[in-house]
Design goal:
By secondary structure, this protein is an alpha/beta fold. It has ten helices and eight strands. Strands 1-2-3-4-5-6-7-8 form an eight-stranded parallel β-barrel, surrounded by seven helices.
């Protein structure tokens, strides 16, 4: 199971005070354990790209992070810049306020435009479950599915709380098998990881990847 779990992990550092040295360490750990990706802030894409060249670890970055309330055009341009810099997977934050006021066409169109800007690379859509009702979680997942995203993701890890197994289960019931489900935020150990996988997670975002596989 260790070998299987490692390939689900996006080894993550998104804290604002992260340094180049910490990113380099993250990347080397990811290479050693063959994690799925490293998830980092956009300014560190070139660093990660250089270290991970030729490995089986992807470079993942975040768009509109962590609030999602930027101009849609800004998010699209940020995505284009990140792909150009070498990002291979994109985790975007939806505009939560637009979802809650039922401006569904805006939310879906934003996801669609960012997916196009990904140029064929994987797009994960962060819906921030802790701010949503179950009905809103389902709606956000369906909008992501309609917009041809590849994953829906529970959380940024920067809001009220992170991944909950019941949210993962609801998301998986809504989008699987067409879309994957990424559980992120507060996954600290092997027990947490296995619980998320049992409930339908196909990717795990965590800064505790070493604790999970060891």
């Amino acid at each position: 199971m260790e070998k299987e779990l490692n390939r689900l992990i996006d080894h993550t550092i998104l804290k604002p005070e992260a340094t180049t040295a910490e990113i380099e360490k993250l990347c080397n750990e990811a290479k050693e354990h063959h994690f799925a990706s490293v998830c980092i802030n956009p300014c560190y894409i070139p660093v990660a790209k250089k270290i991970l060249q030729g490995s089986d670890v992807k470079v993942c970055t975040v768009i509109g992070f962590p609030l999602g309330a930027m101009l849609k055009e800004s998010k699209v341009h940020e995505t284009e810049d990140c792909i150009k810099a070498g990002a291979e997977e994109i985790d975007m934050v939806i505009n939560v306020g637009k979802l809650k006021e039922k401006d569904y066409s805006y939310v879906e169109q934003e996801i669609r435009e960012i997916k196009e800007a990904c140029q064929g690379h994987i797009l994960k859509v962060i819906i921030e479950c802790c701010l949503l009702t179950n009905e809103e979680i389902v709606k956000a997942c369906l909008l992501a599915k309609n917009a041809k995203a590849d994953f829906v993701k529970t959380s940024t890890g920067f809001s009220k709380w992170g991944a909950k197994a019941e949210d993962v289960k609801l998301m998986a019931q809504t989008v699987a098998p067409e879309l994957g489900v990424k559980a992120a935020g507060g996954i600290k150990n092997r027990e947490d990881a296995l619980k998320m996988v049992e409930n339908g997670a196909t990717r795990l975002g965590t800064s505790r990847g070493l604790d999970i596989v060891k």
